[in-house]
Amino acid sequence: MADRTDEAFTRGDIVWHDGLFKTSARPWFVLSNDDHPFHGEDYLVAGITTTEREQAIELTAESWAVGGLPETSYVSPWFLTTLKHTAIEQGVGTVTDEVCATALDAARDYLA
């Protein structure tokens, strides 16, 4: 995981952004990889929330390869957007490859 915002984030990193509308600060799951156009400048991300939903992917203590969040959180693979690198406050952590694959598959299902 990039721990400073001057390094590119990679797929599976969790980053903090102050909010798309400046009232919804939250962590985001980086889905894009270095094949994404403008990698290091823009990222495709999925929202993370503390609201439990049946279709969401729970992030447990075992979900993390590095770092973590203070509360049980859930990836919403249907809540997709892009974030500019310069708008990311910091890296929060990195999830395991298994969690990353699950999130990617779920996001693809919503786009298929």
Structure in words:
This protein is mostly beta strands and 112 residues long. It has one domain (13-111): SH3 type barrels (Roll). The chain has one helix at residues 97-111; strands at residues 13-17, 26-30, 42-49, 57-59, 64-67, 73-84, 88-95. Strands 4-6-3-2-1-7-5 form a 7-stranded antiparallel sheet. It is globular. The N and C termini lie far apart (29 Å).
Class based on secondary structure composition and strand pairing = mainly beta
In the CATH hierarchy, the architecture is Roll
Helix proportion of residues, in percent? 10-25%
Q: What is the third-level CATH name, the topology?
A: SH3 type barrels
Shape category: globular
Number of helices: 1
User: What order do the helices and strands follow?
Assistant: EEEEEEEH
If strands are numbered along the chain, what order do they take across the biggest sheet?
Answer: 4-6-3-2-1-7-5
Radius of gyration over C-alpha positions, nearest whole angstrom: 13 Å
Biggest sheet character: 7 strands, antiparallel
Query: Quick one: CATH class?
Result: Mainly Beta
